[in-house]
Amino acid sequence: MATDEMVETDGDARVPRPDEPLVDAPEYLISFLQRLNRDQMETALRASGLKLTGWRILSCLDERGPMSLLDLAELSVIERTVTSRLVDRLIADGLVSKQAFSHDKRISIVAITGKGRDLLRASNLGVRNLRAQLFRDFSDDEYRQLCRLLQRLKANAQSLRR
Length: 162
What we know:
Blueprint: E1 6-9, E2 13-16, H1 26-45, H2 52-64, E3 67-68, H3 69-76, H4 80-92, E4 96-101, E5 104-112, H5 114-134, H6 140-161
Antiparallel strand pairs: 1-2, 3-5, 4-5
Helix pairs in contact: 1-5, 2-3, 2-5, 3-4
């Protein structure tokens, strides 16, 4: 999209013109990429037996440590009720554990188990291969810039929820 196809609002904020084709709009491209990425991740994880949502939960717990179901749902970007059902399934498979919080029995703390960590490590090879293919034409600087821009977009989107 060329700069002359953009309109300026509120000083330096730039937005696409309203008559711009849908398929060129950033929110469309993000949705399209998300659908493709979800399908590709499911394929990459299939050999390990994990679904994308289970992989995200295990990854969050592995990276951040034990946390409440509410925090896990927020971090893993999965609806709270769905997260609760997924955690129950992962418990049945021996991949996570859940305990009542010592100060408030209504709050459950979820943690990854050794078996969950082993499965996560085994599944990450497929994820690394997918990411290598997805970003193969990006320089290190372009990759870092893309991540910075997406973080800014995420912050802007979160500020609209408040």
